Fold:
Amino acid sequence: MSVLFPALQEKSTQAKQALRFGDRALTYAELAEVAGTLARELRALRGTGETPVRVAVWATATIETSVAVVAALLAGVPAVPVNPKIGERELAHIVTDSSPVRVLAEPGAELPAGLRELHRTDVTLTGSAGALPDEPGPESPALIVYTSGTTGPPKGVVLPRRAIAETLDALEDAWQWSAEDVLVHALPLFHVHGLILGVLGPLRRAAEVRHLGRFATAPLTEELANGATMMFGVPTMYHRIAAEVQDDPALRDALAGARLLVSGSAALPVHDHERITAATGQQVVERYGMTETLMNTSVRADGERRPGTVGVPLRGVEVRLVEENGTPIEDSDGETVGEIQVRGANLFTEYLNRPDATAEAFVDGWFRTGDMAVRDADGYLRIVGRKATDLIKSGGYKIGAGEIENALLEHPGVSEAAVTGEPDPDLGERIVAWIVPSGARPDELELADHVSRLLAPHKRPRVVHFVDALPRNDMGKVLKRALHA
Structure:
């Protein structure tokens, strides 16, 4: 377990391609030389002092970012990925909180003022052969990934090497992920999905990753038609695929030939599931994870593909649902809503410099995710939303926003939908729908009746707002607080 990337040292994989970004690529032998050279330089920073040494990585969607993170991991120096679109205030907080001693960046990248004061190392694709540094133990910090922070400055999630290895090995089991797979994606590299799953995942499997740079269906089609076996994406990407696949035979055939299509970072609407399956015969796999926990559950490659669910717990991960008072929910009836709590070797170590927040996040060793779900009799979980923004208490019922959003998306007049709650003197909270129309605006009463027919009368929206677009973050999640603002 102490060696995160055995393929960098195995003779059988040296000539195999490891990374490709556009027309730039590295074999495993070349990656070992390039990342190894940088790792030896970073390893010298650790010295013998007791002060933690960390490096920031200007995490553009480039091959240099991948090399920088691999080098830091080889050196045993925790890396702090930084979003290239970050704002001044958030950047200042991250730099002050994590205290990196230098920043790793692609040559020519213009860094913001908050990083220019750090010693800069340009990541080049040159290096020399040499022994790779001895890697530290499983509890050693590997990455510090900052959460989005909805109520305050973002918190630095300290991810140990153990969590990365356990998650990637559990996904090997769930997805039958092998060295023969070729992964294609266009995810950003400053967060868990694109960086840990999308780059470190293939490298741990001795597989190959091809990064598109920016998402578009034409290059995706080309890669899937030329050897790529897996795709990772977020719902906004799959929504575009669903809109185009019926009228694009090349895209349809390319998707149909893939071994596995995986969606994450937010719920994929059932309507998009159905459109993609109808056109290609493929059923998209969904999984569930967080920055603090990495991956918790997934629909298995050899299991039933059930749209709208995030599957069953991964190997080594325990999952339970609890009532608001903390009482575990024993029912698996597909209706009883509870908060997801998890424990296992996939969990983070702490929030950097925040022992108070770390202690608050756990109860008896279980991590409080803040996500709400229901569980079917066979253990499949269905996420209904965040406790803070997606659990609506209306008329004595606990209602998850997610199932209403999926129902609304089945209406032909709805292109996108978000559901929130707002105070109501009679109901406690009323259900509010935010709709991006598909063509002409549908009638509000018609939408309410549509939801009542599919779900239940108490789940119908009482207020409907029509908007041109839903505010989203870089991972495609709807920013619901911004809707009310």
Observations:
- The first helix runs from residue 28 to 46.
